[in-house]
Design brief:
Length: about 130
């Protein structure tokens, strides 16, 4: 099973895990988080994040999800990447997280694609017409 780590601003990662636990009915295994506070030093957070990656990797790799590309959490992710072993995707949202939790028993590269599609397909313009069709 592929481990999943969320690195984000503030309590976003913790909140996403709480919501995913609600949606899925139980707390998913091999799922961790790091919340970056306003005053956190990335150099101090990096060793803890590296240890979490090691703890979450049970042999199938780790997918790290982050919130805003180019921001501090994402910059930390960039220092943890190992191609084919530890991959990263920015723009995490609840549909992306649920999709990755559902499809993480396969290949890490395919899970990256599932994360991207889950994030994109979970975002749409909510209209009255769309509501009538469902």
């Amino acid at each position: 099973m592929i481990g999943i780590l969320i690195i984000s601003h503030g309590n976003l990662a913790e909140s996403l895990i709480h919501c995913a636990t609600h949606v899925m009915g139980k707390k998913p295994e091999l799922l961790g988080q790091v919340g970056i506070g306003m005053h956190d030093d990335p150099a101090t957070v990096l060793p803890d994040a590296l240890q979490l990656v090691k703890d979450l990797d049970q042999g199938d790799g780790v997918l790290i999800l982050s919130d805003i590309y180019g921001a501090t959490p994402c910059n930390i992710v960039g220092k943890l990447l190992v191609p084919g072993r530890v991959e990263g995707v920015a723009g995490v949202n609840l549909p992306m997280l649920v999709r990755t939790l559902t499809y993480r028993n396969g290949d890490l590269g395919k899970l990256v694609e599932k994360a991207l599609s889950g994030g994109r397909e979970g975002v749409f313009h909510f209209t009255e017409e769309a509501c009538k069709q469902s």
